[in-house]
Specification:
Elements (H helix, E strand, L loop, with lengths): L7 E3 L14 E4 L2 H5 L7 E6 L24 H11 E10 L5 H11 L2 E9 L13 E9 L12 E3 L14 H11 L5 E4 L6 H8 L3 E6 L2 H10 L5
Parallel strand pairs: 1-2, 2-9, 3-4, 3-8, 5-7, 8-9
Antiparallel strand pairs: 4-6, 5-6
Helix pairs in contact: 2-3, 4-5
Length: about 230
């Protein structure tokens, strides 16, 4: 393991991540396998946007790895719960069409649902029986976290990124209020499905340390490029 206080961008899968006190790590590989190499109770806040299990395809034909199966859902959240410190929080986006699968995984891991966030879009991302004007995330607790000094709103205006770096890219400005509220100063933010690195970038700009994992090598390279000033 690397010494504390250094930065790391790791290529290719490996048996585990550096110690969680390791500063600013982005690694390419399977998050379930890699989180098993992390210390228990070692990260302060998790903010993640996992595949929605909806076989997503963008207008340009881009897809998301592991969006066609649910085999990873329970193991991933079990490991997230293990590495999260007691009395801490996880904010997870999810696919509403698979709410039952996500709820099952959260509860099996040991999380309690303590909040729900709706991100209001001014445009419809798609239309079927309804025009879809929102994204959503659940706030999950391990133990009994203290309430923040300033609670973020549970209805938030969406900021469109143009998806320049990832087909489901999130805006760092949308993510920042939750990191600021739920991660202590200089704490460690984990995103095991880090995509193009938006969560990590938001954490870095707020002075937090971060650990990101991404399975797709192209997106990992994008995250590495976007986070270069922090790693």
């Amino acid at each position: 393991m690397m010494s504390a206080g250094t930065n790391s961008v790791t290529e290719g899968p490996r048996s585990g991540l550096p110690e969680s006190r390791q500063r600013n790590t982005i690694i390419n590989g399977d998050c379930v396998h890699l989180m098993r190499g992390m210390d228990r109770n070692s990260v302060d806040f998790i903010l993640t946007d996992p595949p929605y299990i909806c076989r997503y395809q963008s207008r340009s034909g881009q897809t998301v790895l592991n969006d066609d199966n649910s085999a990873w859902v329970r193991p991933a959240f079990r490991e997230m719960y293990r590495v999260l410190k007691p009395d801490s929080l996880c904010l997870s986006f999810y696919g509403w069409t698979k709410t039952d699968l996500f709820f099952d995984a959260w509860q099996a891991a040991g999380f309690r649902v303590v909040g729900h966030v709706v991100f209001n879009k001014r445009y419809a991302s798609s239309s079927r029986f309804l025009a879809y004007h929102h994204e959503q995330a659940f706030l999950l607790a391990k133990g009994h976290p203290e309430r923040p000094e300033t609670a973020p709103a549970d209805v938030v205006d969406w900021v469109y990124t143009g998806n320049r770096f990832h087909p489901t890219q999130k805006s760092i400005e949308v993510l920042k209020p939750f990191i600021k509220a739920f991660c202590p100063e200089n704490g460690v933010v984990l995103d095991p499905f880090c995509g193009s690195g938006s969560t990590l970038l938001a954490a870095g700009e707020l002075g937090c340390r971060f650990v990101g994992i991404e399975l797709d090598r192209d997106h990992w390279r994008t995250a590495r490029s976007r986070l270069r000033r922090f790693v």
